[in-house]
Amino acid sequence: MSWSVGQVAGFAGVTVRTLHHYDAIGLLVPSARSHAGHRRYDDADLDRLQQILFYRELGFPLEEVAALLDDPDADPRAHLRRQHELLTARIERLQKMAAAVEQAMEARTMGINLTPEEKFEVFGDFDPDQYQEEVQERWGDTDAYRQSRERTASYTKEDWQRIQREADELTRRFVALMEAGEPADSEAAMDVAEDHRRGIARNHYDCGYEMHTCLGEMYVNDERFTRNIDQARPGLAAYMRDAILANAVRHTA
């Protein structure tokens, strides 16, 4: 049995462009070609792709993935155990920080000096103070939360309206891409994810790619965020998470 590049992309949940790139750099060279010169993948190729995707999920750069798969003396299990311990600790730390800042940002509890009338004008019937006690108690002592509080303490109604318009525009762009059938790891989707990250950094707190990835995971792991985001379109939270992850890989691989 052999499969075309399109079929393999469908099996693995990656883009055809990704498979072309893996072929070009020698990471996953298909075992055969059709008479017309098209790539054909066999079972061994699929096994290798599975390993590649496993390493990539753990954040390994492509060069290291190639070294692990092609070095007969490498002990990938021991290497993975060490990396898993480090990644688990880092993810736990960043998720706590990300949860603090994201929930504070979403709740608009960071020093907003608005009257009740202005809050309604900016946020509609959403109560920006509903998570105040929870956020302050659980995450009020994080550096990122303090940074965001300092930045936004002097924001006016116009500032928050601008930020809301920017958020609405990003949502509109993500939804348009979904409806057009653009994969979450397409250049267009990754570009919107990058604009999303830059908006957070510009308006709230320094947001690197690791932090941004943790935010994306929280969009699907916390049902409150998923429910809120998916109001614009079912599945939007997962699409944003995937685009954020792909964009992080694009900039850090």
Strands of the largest sheet, in order across it? 1-3-2
Distance from first to last alpha carbon: 33 Å
Helix and strand composition category: mainly alpha
Strand-residue proportion: under 5%
Overall outline: globular
Structure characterization notes:
It is built from 13 helices and three strands, in the order βααββααααααααααα. By secondary structure, the protein is mainly alpha-helical. The protein has a three-stranded antiparallel beta sheet with strand order 1-3-2. The longest helix is centred in the middle third of the chain and has 32 residues, at 76-107. The chain starts with a strand and ends with a helix. The model is unreliable at 107-111 (pLDDT under 50).
Topology:
Blueprint lengths: L2 E2 H8 L3 H9 L7 E2 L5 E3 L1 H15 L4 H9 L5 H32 L8 H8 L8 H8 L3 H10 L4 H23 L7 H17 L5 H13 L1 H7 L6 H17 L1
Antiparallel strand pairs: 1-3, 2-3
Helix pairs in contact: 1-2, 3-4, 5-7, 5-8, 5-11, 6-9, 9-10, 10-13, 11-12, 11-13
